[in-house]
Amino acid sequence: MNEAAVIQNEAPVIQKVVVFKGGEDPALLKRIEAFRLDGWSELITAKLAARRFGLDSFDYKAWHIAYFGEGGVIASGRLIIATHQSGVPDICSFRPYLGLMEYPIGMLNRLLVDRIYRGRGMATSINRDRIALARDHGVADLWVEIQSHRVASMEQLGFCDVGPSLDKSIIGDWRIMRRNT
Asked: Tens digits of per-residue pLDDT, 104-122?
């Protein structure tokens, strides 16, 4: 059995879970950015990763959930709470669906699990945490843009497929999903 197979079968070692608002800990936010850029640079060019997944103005207002292991961040995701259309990130993806949004809305995005730890339920766990956090903050509606092969996992969390994403900057079939809290 190769080393990768052994690692895949081990239980994830989550040493710490941190939930914070981006502007409250800029240093931690920079660590999450480095994690996102490193992970996405494996799949797309570093330049595109920086443009799409680097820090943006939404990061400082958003809630972030980060799982830490021995080597640092091993998974993270953010929750943006928007009270009007100008608070919707990646608006080009959601443009056809803006009329369906019931504010305040929660936008689940920037979810990434280190490739070594994928397939162990961390993404589902972070999504459950973000759903609970959104509910705690009075969010009426949750939205997510997700790769089509992940639709079933989001349906298990109560999301419905609304339609295709209009953003074609990253290769693949991306879907827009919605869940009422």
From this structure: 999 999 999 999 999 999 9
